[in-house]
Sequence to fold (406 residues):
Amino acid sequence: MGILDFFRSRPKNTASVAKERLRIIVAQERAAQGRPDYLPLLRREILEVIKKYVNVDPDAIDIHVERDGDSEVLELSVALPERSPPAANADSATREAAAGEA
Amino acid sequence: MENEQLDPARADAPSPSSSPSVTDAPSPTPGRTSLTEIIVVTSGKGGVGKTTTSASLAVGLAKRGKKVAVIDFDVGLRNLDLIMGCERRVVYDFVNVIHEECTLKQALIKDKRFETLYVLAASQTRDKDALSKEGVERVLKELAEDGFDYIVCDSPAGIEKGASLAMYFADRAVVVVNPEVSSVRDSDRILGLLASKTRRAELGNGPVEQHLLLTRYNPERVAGGDMMGVDDVKEILGIEVLGVIPESPGVLTASNAGVPVILDDVSPAGQAYDDAVARLAGETRPMRFIEAQKKGFLARIFGS
Fold:
């Protein structure tokens, strides 16, 4: 860094930004790799069915496939809206998990 | 479900114990049936230096007296012939051999510099579907029977047919990566494919031995904080580094001349490739050209 550089504005450390972004995206993509490719479609159809009864947010459905030894578990969780008119007795954000061997 | 297979090489810690460090003595890769070693040079992303690397690795191994064939898998966009400097001697190509329009011997172009080095060019006129798994296997088998020590497969960019066939039969993989976000991400994708979509993975013959080769490395920019360093890339991808090739004008002048850069022993890139080949052959060599050059007094005062 010379005298001339001293007066210029210092760029921030972009390499560490790059590394952090990569760390996140690579972890995400590695996790997604073993996932069956029908998941997005399954998610959309389940959402359509649920929407017939409860007005849920499209982002409220979470689907995961987890490995447990030799078996795989399909985990589905749906966050219901705080006040859902049709289902009056539903508490805030009920989580339902359905587990089954895939 | 096929795509849900738990791939052993990727499931464990970032540094799989299955891939020995570059300092280890050369040991025959487990599960190998012949003495021929098939090395794929791949990357996912284009323009990172796969062909430059394939040419230099092949020349470096031949220089050590090994019998080497280097095959261009980039059907439709061949370039290895130019980098090797044999473009005017291509008569028959890889696709001709696969379609039995000529013999393998007719298609192998003997290098003018090294007796034991042969180039198999890609077809310039056909498309990628001209390659078939059975055809590629037959050519590789014939080369093995011919006593080749190494077959270097220069993969095209992408993850389509040419690229997947280039890696399918590999015993080892050299993943070429630039210290830049898109290249690193693509390399990770390729590492995933190497662990699942190769013959070794399918037959359970042990993983393809994976090596990382960083190219276009600029130590000054790394020191300045705008380029990821060797350790950053190694940490993200989690495999051993075979070599670091500094960004160097020698790479362009070598490709202009059709002389693989490893033969330019003045250029830092040439020397770094020579180190990488030595490590591939089992030697231990310290990493060079990864530290920024110390600036002189005047340069420090006035900047550069």
